[in-house]
Protein backbone atom coordinates (compact mmCIF):
# COMPACT_ATOMS: atom_id res chain seq x y z
CA UNK A 1 0.00 0.00 0.00
CA UNK A 2 1.55 3.36 -0.95
CA UNK A 3 2.24 5.86 1.81
CA UNK A 4 -0.67 8.29 2.22
CA UNK A 5 1.76 11.17 2.74
CA UNK A 6 3.04 13.56 0.10
CA UNK A 7 6.74 13.76 0.99
CA UNK A 8 7.45 16.83 -1.12
CA UNK A 9 4.71 18.89 0.51
CA UNK A 10 5.64 17.55 3.93
CA UNK A 11 9.32 18.51 3.48
CA UNK A 12 8.42 22.02 2.30
CA UNK A 13 6.03 22.52 5.23
CA UNK A 14 8.91 21.46 7.53
CA UNK A 15 11.12 24.14 5.98
CA UNK A 16 13.27 21.61 4.09
CA UNK A 17 14.18 21.54 0.40
CA UNK A 18 12.84 18.18 -0.86
CA UNK A 19 15.55 18.10 -3.56
CA UNK A 20 18.36 18.38 -1.04
CA UNK A 21 17.46 15.64 1.39
CA UNK A 22 19.86 12.73 2.02
CA UNK A 23 18.60 9.50 0.47
CA UNK A 24 20.34 7.25 3.00
CA UNK A 25 20.77 8.34 6.62
CA UNK A 26 22.89 6.35 9.08
CA UNK A 27 22.65 7.06 12.81
CA UNK A 28 24.87 6.25 15.78
CA UNK A 29 22.25 6.44 18.52
CA UNK A 30 24.50 7.19 21.49
CA UNK A 31 24.02 8.61 24.98
CA UNK A 32 21.09 6.58 26.33
CA UNK A 33 23.01 5.71 29.51
CA UNK A 34 24.20 9.28 30.11
CA UNK A 35 20.69 10.63 29.55
CA UNK A 36 19.36 8.32 32.28
CA UNK A 37 22.21 8.84 34.74
CA UNK A 38 21.88 12.64 34.42
CA UNK A 39 18.28 12.20 35.59
CA UNK A 40 19.14 9.87 38.45
CA UNK A 41 17.60 6.89 36.65
CA UNK A 42 19.10 3.48 35.82
CA UNK A 43 20.80 3.29 32.38
CA UNK A 44 18.11 1.02 31.00
CA UNK A 45 15.57 3.85 31.32
CA UNK A 46 17.57 5.63 28.66
CA UNK A 47 17.33 2.61 26.35
CA UNK A 48 13.56 2.46 26.89
CA UNK A 49 13.18 6.14 26.01
CA UNK A 50 15.54 5.57 23.07
CA UNK A 51 13.15 3.04 21.55
CA UNK A 52 10.40 5.69 21.46
CA UNK A 53 12.78 8.06 19.69
CA UNK A 54 13.52 5.36 17.10
CA UNK A 55 9.79 5.17 16.37
CA UNK A 56 9.49 8.95 15.96
CA UNK A 57 12.60 9.09 13.72
CA UNK A 58 11.37 6.25 11.50
CA UNK A 59 7.98 7.95 11.15
CA UNK A 60 9.62 11.26 10.17
CA UNK A 61 11.75 9.48 7.53
CA UNK A 62 8.61 7.91 6.06
CA UNK A 63 6.88 11.28 5.90
CA UNK A 64 9.90 12.87 4.21
CA UNK A 65 10.22 10.04 1.69
CA UNK A 66 13.78 9.11 2.75
CA UNK A 67 14.95 5.93 0.99
CA UNK A 68 16.92 4.33 3.81
CA UNK A 69 17.59 4.72 7.53
CA UNK A 70 20.34 2.55 9.05
CA UNK A 71 20.39 2.57 12.86
CA UNK A 72 23.27 1.37 15.03
CA UNK A 73 21.41 -0.61 17.70
CA UNK A 74 24.03 -2.95 19.13
CA UNK A 75 27.70 -3.08 18.19
CA UNK A 76 29.93 -6.15 18.04
CA UNK A 77 31.77 -4.51 20.96
CA UNK A 78 28.66 -3.94 23.11
CA UNK A 79 28.86 -7.56 24.39
CA UNK A 80 31.54 -6.20 26.74
CA UNK A 81 28.81 -4.54 28.83
CA UNK A 82 27.40 -6.08 32.02
CA UNK A 83 25.21 -9.12 31.26
CA UNK A 84 22.15 -7.45 32.81
CA UNK A 85 22.38 -4.53 30.37
CA UNK A 86 22.99 -6.81 27.37
CA UNK A 87 20.00 -8.98 28.39
CA UNK A 88 17.84 -5.87 28.75
CA UNK A 89 18.88 -4.61 25.31
CA UNK A 90 18.07 -7.99 23.71
CA UNK A 91 14.62 -8.13 25.32
CA UNK A 92 13.97 -4.51 24.33
CA UNK A 93 14.95 -5.35 20.78
CA UNK A 94 12.51 -8.25 20.71
CA UNK A 95 9.72 -6.04 22.06
CA UNK A 96 10.56 -3.35 19.50
CA UNK A 97 10.44 -5.90 16.66
CA UNK A 98 6.99 -7.03 17.81
CA UNK A 99 5.65 -3.51 18.45
CA UNK A 100 6.77 -2.15 15.08
CA UNK A 101 4.88 -4.66 12.95
CA UNK A 102 1.89 -2.36 12.47
CA UNK A 103 4.09 0.62 11.58
CA UNK A 104 6.10 -1.51 9.13
CA UNK A 105 2.89 -2.63 7.42
CA UNK A 106 1.08 0.72 7.48
CA UNK A 107 4.07 2.73 6.25
CA UNK A 108 5.14 0.16 3.62
CA UNK A 109 8.58 -0.15 5.30
CA UNK A 110 11.10 -2.74 4.11
CA UNK A 111 12.82 -4.06 7.22
CA UNK A 112 16.39 -5.40 7.07
CA UNK A 113 19.23 -6.21 9.46
CA UNK A 114 23.03 -6.10 9.17
CA UNK A 115 25.50 -7.79 11.54
CA UNK A 116 26.46 -11.28 12.66
CA UNK A 117 23.73 -13.57 13.96
CA UNK A 118 25.98 -15.38 16.46
CA UNK A 119 25.16 -14.57 20.05
CA UNK A 120 21.74 -13.07 19.32
CA UNK A 121 19.09 -15.04 21.27
CA UNK A 122 16.94 -17.35 19.12
CA UNK A 123 13.67 -15.62 20.06
CA UNK A 124 15.08 -12.27 18.89
CA UNK A 125 16.32 -13.86 15.64
CA UNK A 126 12.86 -15.32 15.05
CA UNK A 127 11.16 -11.90 15.35
CA UNK A 128 13.84 -10.33 13.16
CA UNK A 129 13.34 -12.97 10.46
CA UNK A 130 9.57 -12.58 10.67
CA UNK A 131 9.79 -8.82 10.07
CA UNK A 132 12.30 -9.26 7.24
CA UNK A 133 10.19 -11.77 5.34
CA UNK A 134 6.85 -10.06 6.09
CA UNK A 135 8.14 -6.77 4.66
CA UNK A 136 10.32 -8.08 1.82
CA UNK A 137 7.92 -6.82 -0.85
CA UNK A 138 7.44 -3.35 0.67
CA UNK A 139 8.63 -0.38 -1.32
CA UNK A 140 8.75 2.54 1.14
CA UNK A 141 11.56 3.39 3.56
CA UNK A 142 14.22 0.68 3.99
CA UNK A 143 14.75 0.44 7.74
CA UNK A 144 18.03 -1.33 8.42
CA UNK A 145 19.02 -2.21 11.98
CA UNK A 146 22.71 -2.82 12.71
CA UNK A 147 22.67 -5.53 15.38
CA UNK A 148 25.83 -7.27 16.57
CA UNK A 149 27.43 -5.15 13.87
CA UNK A 150 31.08 -4.20 13.56
CA UNK A 151 32.60 -2.54 10.51
CA UNK A 152 35.83 -4.51 10.73
CA UNK A 153 34.00 -7.81 11.28
CA UNK A 154 31.95 -7.00 8.19
CA UNK A 155 35.13 -6.50 6.16
CA UNK A 156 36.57 -9.77 7.54
CA UNK A 157 33.41 -11.61 6.46
CA UNK A 158 33.54 -9.99 3.01
CA UNK A 159 37.20 -10.97 2.53
CA UNK A 160 36.39 -14.57 3.51
CA UNK A 161 33.52 -14.64 1.03
CA UNK A 162 35.67 -13.36 -1.83
CA UNK A 163 38.55 -15.70 -0.87
CA UNK A 164 36.11 -18.64 -1.08
CA UNK A 165 35.07 -17.54 -4.57
CA UNK A 166 38.74 -17.39 -5.58
CA UNK A 167 39.35 -20.85 -4.12
CA UNK A 168 36.39 -22.29 -6.05
CA UNK A 169 37.87 -20.78 -9.22
CA UNK A 170 34.89 -18.44 -9.68
CA UNK A 171 36.86 -15.21 -9.24
CA UNK A 172 40.30 -14.12 -10.37
CA UNK A 173 42.05 -11.87 -7.79
CA UNK A 174 42.85 -9.34 -10.51
CA UNK A 175 39.09 -8.87 -11.10
CA UNK A 176 38.46 -7.71 -7.52
CA UNK A 177 37.42 -4.07 -7.53
CA UNK A 178 35.42 -1.74 -5.27
CA UNK A 179 32.11 -3.10 -6.58
CA UNK A 180 33.11 -6.66 -5.64
CA UNK A 181 33.95 -5.56 -2.13
CA UNK A 182 30.74 -3.51 -1.76
CA UNK A 183 28.80 -6.51 -3.04
CA UNK A 184 30.39 -8.82 -0.47
CA UNK A 185 29.50 -6.60 2.51
CA UNK A 186 26.31 -7.04 4.61
CA UNK A 187 25.05 -3.88 2.88
CA UNK A 188 25.25 -5.38 -0.64
CA UNK A 189 22.80 -3.64 -2.94
CA UNK A 190 22.28 -0.63 -0.63
CA UNK A 191 23.55 2.83 -1.52
CA UNK A 192 26.19 4.32 0.77
CA UNK A 193 24.92 6.66 3.50
CA UNK A 194 24.78 10.32 2.46
CA UNK A 195 24.53 11.56 6.03
CA UNK A 196 25.90 10.08 9.27
CA UNK A 197 24.34 11.47 12.44
CA UNK A 198 25.87 10.82 15.87
CA UNK A 199 24.18 11.88 19.09
CA UNK A 200 25.81 12.53 22.49
CA UNK A 201 28.80 14.41 21.15
CA UNK A 202 31.56 11.82 20.67
CA UNK A 203 33.71 12.61 17.64
CA UNK A 204 34.28 9.03 16.53
CA UNK A 205 32.69 6.43 14.29
CA UNK A 206 32.88 3.48 16.73
CA UNK A 207 33.40 0.84 14.03
CA UNK A 208 30.24 1.81 12.12
CA UNK A 209 29.94 1.27 8.36
CA UNK A 210 33.67 1.88 7.86
CA UNK A 211 33.68 1.14 4.13
CA UNK A 212 30.33 2.76 3.39
CA UNK A 213 30.82 6.17 5.04
CA UNK A 214 33.84 7.16 2.90
CA UNK A 215 31.99 10.20 1.58
CA UNK A 216 29.12 10.55 4.05
CA UNK A 217 28.54 14.00 5.51
CA UNK A 218 29.03 13.87 9.29
CA UNK A 219 26.74 15.63 11.75
CA UNK A 220 27.25 15.36 15.51
CA UNK A 221 24.95 16.79 18.16
CA UNK A 222 25.66 17.04 21.90
CA UNK A 223 22.07 15.93 22.56
CA UNK A 224 21.71 12.38 23.86
CA UNK A 225 19.63 9.98 21.74
CA UNK A 226 16.55 10.14 24.03
CA UNK A 227 16.48 13.93 23.39
CA UNK A 228 16.79 13.55 19.60
CA UNK A 229 13.39 14.92 18.64
CA UNK A 230 12.02 15.92 15.25
CA UNK A 231 13.37 19.47 15.56
CA UNK A 232 16.95 18.20 16.11
CA UNK A 233 16.53 15.78 13.21
CA UNK A 234 15.35 18.59 10.94
CA UNK A 235 18.33 20.72 12.02
CA UNK A 236 20.62 17.90 10.80
CA UNK A 237 18.73 17.67 7.51
CA UNK A 238 18.83 21.40 7.00
CA UNK A 239 22.57 21.46 7.67
CA UNK A 240 23.06 18.61 5.19
CA UNK A 241 21.13 20.57 2.55
CA UNK A 242 23.75 23.33 2.76
CA UNK A 243 26.76 21.02 2.41
CA UNK A 244 28.89 21.17 -0.71
CA UNK A 245 29.64 17.55 -1.61
CA UNK A 246 32.66 17.40 -3.91
CA UNK A 247 33.71 13.72 -3.73
CA UNK A 248 37.27 14.82 -4.39
CA UNK A 249 36.36 16.93 -7.41
CA UNK A 250 35.72 20.66 -7.61
CA UNK A 251 32.49 22.40 -6.72
CA UNK A 252 32.69 24.47 -9.90
CA UNK A 253 35.36 25.10 -12.46
CA UNK A 254 35.46 28.91 -12.12
CA UNK A 255 38.92 30.05 -11.13
CA UNK A 256 40.47 26.75 -12.16
CA UNK A 257 44.13 26.85 -13.22
C1 LIG B 1 23.63 3.94 23.04
O1 LIG B 1 23.68 4.48 24.30
C2 LIG B 1 22.91 2.61 22.99
C3 LIG B 1 23.82 1.45 22.83
C4 LIG B 1 25.10 1.49 22.62
C5 LIG B 1 23.19 0.15 22.89
P1 LIG B 1 24.78 4.06 25.36
O2 LIG B 1 24.25 2.89 26.12
O3 LIG B 1 26.09 3.85 24.71
O4 LIG B 1 24.81 5.33 26.30
P2 LIG B 1 26.10 6.07 26.85
O5 LIG B 1 26.96 6.40 25.67
O6 LIG B 1 26.77 5.12 27.79
O7 LIG B 1 25.57 7.29 27.51
C1 LIG C 1 28.13 2.99 19.52
O1 LIG C 1 27.99 3.47 20.80
C2 LIG C 1 27.25 1.76 19.34
C3 LIG C 1 25.83 2.02 19.29
C4 LIG C 1 25.26 3.18 19.29
C5 LIG C 1 24.99 0.84 19.20
P1 LIG C 1 29.00 3.03 21.96
O2 LIG C 1 28.54 3.71 23.19
O3 LIG C 1 29.08 1.55 22.02
O4 LIG C 1 30.37 3.60 21.42
P2 LIG C 1 31.67 4.06 22.18
O5 LIG C 1 32.02 2.97 23.18
O6 LIG C 1 31.35 5.36 22.88
O7 LIG C 1 32.69 4.25 21.11
MG1 LIG D 1 27.66 5.05 24.29
UniProtKB/TrEMBL annotation:
Protein EC: 2.5.1.-
One Pfam family here: Prenyltransf
CDD domains: Cis_IPPS (cd00475)
Keyword Magnesium: yes
Cofactor(s) needed: Mg(2+)
Binding site for substrate: 31-35, 43, 47, 75-77, 79, 81, 198, 204-206
Cofactor binding annotation: Binds 2 magnesium ions per subunit.
Sequence positions that bind Mg(2+): 30, 217
Keyword Coiled coil belongs to the record: no
SUPFAM superfamilies found in the cross-reference section: Undecaprenyl diphosphate synthase
HAMAP family: ISPT (MF_01139)
Protein's name according to its UniProt entry: Isoprenyl transferase
Native species: Fimbriiglobus ruber
